[in-house]
Amino acid sequence: MNRTPRTTRRKQTAIGAALAGVAVLGMFATAHTANAAPAPAHTVATAHLARTANTPYVINHFGEENADKGRAERSPKNLVLSEFTSINGLNWQQWGAKKAVGTGKVTGTWCLDTCLDKPLKATVTLSDPKTVNGKKVFSTFTLKLAGNPGTYDSEDLRGKRPLATS
What we know:
The protein is 20% helix and 33% strand. The longest helix has 30 residues. The two termini are 33 Å apart.
């Protein structure tokens, strides 16, 4: 009888739980966005968002159709940053070869009791592009809440955090 080592089984369980969390957050974000007012049109200068073959993508797990495998996108309107955090209504000020910077409204499992109906304003910076499966993608994000957002205990709010790259 084939037995899977206990540590391998734990890793598989942890990965499965993380993917389930991404799927749940994606479904929540989709439902939340469907009930929200339409986002304003982009008002970004196109010079900062010039696309070349070298311009990275971000792997986005937003929406039910992308929850499992993700989708390579540039300048998405809504973005799942981690299994705990999502940012919506993004307005990108920069999307370049080294980094992308945008503002939007963030929600996460770490603030659902306070930010479900009133998402927090934030700036997200995507950085550290890497080539994955022949496509250049951003591999980290930094999230900074605007104004006086209160105190939240979330790893996603501390320094650079990894982004899904596949």
